[in-house]
Write a structure and sequence with these properties.
With 176 residues, the chain is of the alpha/beta class. 26% of the residues lie in helices and 20% in strands.
Length: 176
């Protein structure tokens, strides 16, 4: 877009929100995915991004793959990788929006989740996908709440993939 046609943005004294979007060949190998995530976090930080965004289930892989088929220590490995990613977020001072899954209460099914990790390495929020595709209902537990996080002065609402088709989510976020 030519400079004369670019919209004028006011920063209102806050840092601009510079977002890096990352896609990589996601597999069901948590350690391999985590390596891609960490590498891309470092690249995004070097490019002075304030946030890096990864796709749905980037860390764990998508679909009907039971944790027990991925090894008896799947949840421990997942927790370890979450910790490493959180440490790196702090070291680079970058926010991370990362698709993963997590155990939810007494449910035997995990949630398809987005972790929002702050630039200090803390989990600022977790959003669990609420609207599941028919096949996903056999794979994941649905979430039940909206998630809004303010990142560098910008209110950000979170949805996952298919949920883009539901205007009521956008209406709810506009109300916040």
């Amino acid at each position: 877009m030519p400079p004369s046609r670019r919209p004028a943005y006011k920063t209102l004294g806050m840092r601009k929100l510079r977002i890096a979007i990352c896609q990589f060949p996601v597999s069901h190998d948590v350690e391999r995915n985590a390596s891609w995530i960490r590498d891309n976090m470092s690249k995004a930080a070097a490019l002075q991004a304030s946030v890096i965004h990864f796709p749905e289930t980037a860390l764990t892989g998508y679909g009907n793959v039971a944790p027990e088929t991925q090894g008896t220590d799947f949840w421990q490995a997942l927790e370890k990788q979450h910790g490493e990613i959180e440490k790196l977020a702090s070291a680079h001072g970058i926010w991370v929006v990362m698709g993963t899954r997590r155990r939810v209460g007494d449910s035997t099914l995990p949630a398809n989740s987005t972790y929002i990790i702050s630039d200090s390495g803390q989990v600022a929020a977790i959003y669990d996908k609420q609207k599941l595709l028919p096949a996903e209902k056999e794979w994941y537990s649905p979430g039940d709440s909206d998630t809004i996080v303010t990142i560098l002065g910008v209110k950000c609402g979170f949805l996952i993939c298919y949920e883009l088709q539901f205007p009521e989510f956008f209406d709810a976020y506009r109300q916040e």
